[in-house]
Amino acid sequence: ADVDSETVIGTNLDDDVAGFEITLNNTYVIVNETGTTDTFNIVLTAEPLSDVVLLLTSTDTGEATVTESLTFTPENWDEAQIVTVTGVDDTIIDKTQYPVIIVSISDTDSDVLFADVENQRVGVTNFDDEPDRDDDYILDPDDPCPDNPDCDGDGIRDNEEPTEPCITDPDCDDDGLPDGEEPTEPCITDPDCDDDGLLDGEEPTEPCITDPDCDDDGILDPDEVAPECITDSDCDDDGILDPDEVAPECITDPDLECGKEINPPDPGPTPGPEPTPEPPRPTDSPSSSFPWWVILAGIALLIAARVFVLLYLGRRSPIITHIAISESDDDYEIRKRPETEATGKLMQDSEIDFLSDAPGLTDIQFTIRLDSGKLAYGSTKQSYTNSEDLPSHILELDALPEVVSINGLVSEIIWAIKAKRTLGITFSLEFEIDGKWTEISQIIEGQIDSGEDFGIPTYCRVVANSPFKTKRYSNPAPLGIINLSGVSETQASN
Fold it and tell me: What is the pLDDT averaged over residues 228-243?
């Protein structure tokens, strides 16, 4: 380096006050992950009475290391000493990093006149050496399109595609809808996102892609008599909702008389011989014709009421749609296999979605966004509701390409109902205390027995209370600590 080209970047130059001066060669300190070095100089600005020891530390030793210390004596205080900064390699695509070198006085080893000198900072630039020409955070040897960050032109960056085959396929699930137009990420790899029997590309509107009963009329979309009825709960605009029509053909027929039987006019009695008059019946004899239609009508009414109540409650039963897991202060790790690799944290601000309780699904699915921007997936058929005696919730996951262990805290639980209106339904929250479900409004001061058998609730659930004095319960949601462990796809196959 050209030592004559120096720039002062941190100093205390007052002639009456002790201090030190930092000078840079060529204005910047620049290194590379290949291990290149750069230097800068330090010299005292006043003669000390005894030795002065300077300590040098890097704010990120994973990017750059530095000479640990310098010692100035009363004999060499005005002679500049050279500090060497070395770039450190890593195996991730992290682009250019900017660690800082902090220079400070060692108070215990230095002249007391230098004790009040402020710390000085030197900025360092460390260039990444992982090849990623298109900045999509996929290594060029592993990237099918190393010069194009959106290889299939679907509007989704390659590193944000849910699976590797989707990088080169603009319609990853072959449902006729481009990946960039799918309403949610799970729909990218699911050709029938709401499991209603209609491909996503055949749904009439985008909201119908994730809603199997798009007009909330109680008739599933594939069971509608006409495509236009999928988004219209009164398909013929006759004021009668589709499920209330007397016959399926009346759903698209606005005629209010549709389906009603029209009796022909009574032609009157046929002329014949004069009937012989019957003797009068006693007034206390029972009627010869019992009105059975009244009983049948009552039974039909009860069945209709039962169906109505089931539909009414079914659409207003709470289901878990989202459980978020946040970082734990004690031990939060997301690591790569094998275990012999470095055990430092792979991610620090990862987002974890715990998705469950979906109708018709038995798997618990997890989506994890890595710091690199990639998404990792895992699933398990083990239900946490079967682990009632565990103090924490422990699950084993499949098909996680990088994740081995996650330990965090449940920070958010979201329940939802399908209906747009609650119509008299009220909701309450219950906690599991000592093996019994207790409504939160029932927990009052002095009521809880704090004996040795009392435990912190590990589950909670939402209860839907209907005006018919019936209740519907959501699946229990875990509280507190949750531990997840998984294996890579390769290890799972072995």
Answer: 85
